[in-house]
Amino acid sequence: VSAQANSTAVQIEAIEAHFTQAALVPELLATFDPSSILTINFDGVGDLSPGQALTQDQVAPTPTIQITAVNSSVDLTGNFTLAMVDADIVGADESNITRHWLENSVVVSNGEVSNSSATAITSYAGPAPASGSGPHRYVVILYQQPSSFSPPSEFSQPNLGVSKFDLNGYVKDSQLGPIVAANYFTVEVGTSTTSVSATSAVQSSTLASISAGTETSGSAAASSTSSASNAA
């Protein structure tokens, strides 16, 4: 096994652990078994670590999304659907979240998601969480888009604005395939007005597949718990 393949496998295990520790699994996603690594890159910031805390200004421009397969058996040809949702803070109702980005029929070209021939149902809209509502988790997900893909009528035309969204309902109703890869970052505006507590960070030394000289890229950013907040 090459060092690169081993490193990618460790990163897969790490992102799975991050999503569990950040309460994205099973609260937002019932299961999470990615076959690739999704890297988010914002101009002026660079490649993000899972759960990295950013400012509203830093996440205003549309990021580039890079996809790295865990091994050569992973097929990254064909069409995919790219989505970004505001999963709010830990403990929020994940059945009615906010859609910030939804593009159908994107492709992966030279390791990067391309939307040159995609349908932008909702073009990227930078996060704007309510001041004092705590650190919101913004999740970027790439789904396989099979030939049977058929979006609901209300999501069949481009240029829909940011709005509330049942992500899992959309995935089921449109017959999307499994998650290929996902990642997330956090944005907080102002100081939280609710009592918060941090989730535990992912420690690379606890990952089963880690080997000598190989480490995960970054530890999980702290997420907060609260009974209510305003999504944006």
Explain what this protein looks like in three dimensions.
Residues 210-229 have low confidence and may be disordered. With 232 residues, the protein is mainly β. The protein has helices at residues 3-21, 167-173, and strands at 36-42, 46-47, 52-54, 64-69, 80-86, 97-109, 112-114, 119-122, 136-144, 163-165, 179-187. A hairpin with a 2-residue loop joins strand 6 and strand 7. The N and C termini lie far apart (43 Å). Strands 3, 5, 6, 7, 8, 9, 10 and 11 form an 8-stranded mixed sheet that branches. It has a 3-stranded antiparallel sheet with strand order 2-1-4.
Q: Mean pLDDT, nearest integer?
A: 87
Rg for CA atoms: 17 Å
Q: Which structural category do the helix and sheet elements fall into?
A: mainly beta
Spatial gap, N to C terminus: 43 Å
| Percent of residues in beta strands | 25-35%
Q: Low-confidence runs (pLDDT<50, min 5 residues)?
A: 210-229
* Helix content percent band: 10-25%
Please report the number of helical segments. Answer: 2
Count of individual beta strands: 11
Order of helices and strands: HEEEEEEEEEEHE
Largest sheet: 8 strands, mixed
Which quaternary structure do these chains form? single chain
Shape: globular
What topology emerges from the helices and strands here?
Elements: H1 3-21, E1 36-42, E2 46-47, E3 52-54, E4 64-69, E5 80-86, E6 97-109, E7 112-114, E8 119-122, E9 136-144, E10 163-165, H2 167-173, E11 179-187
Parallel strand pairs: 3-11
Antiparallel strand pairs: 1-2, 1-4, 5-6, 5-9, 6-7, 6-8, 6-10, 9-11
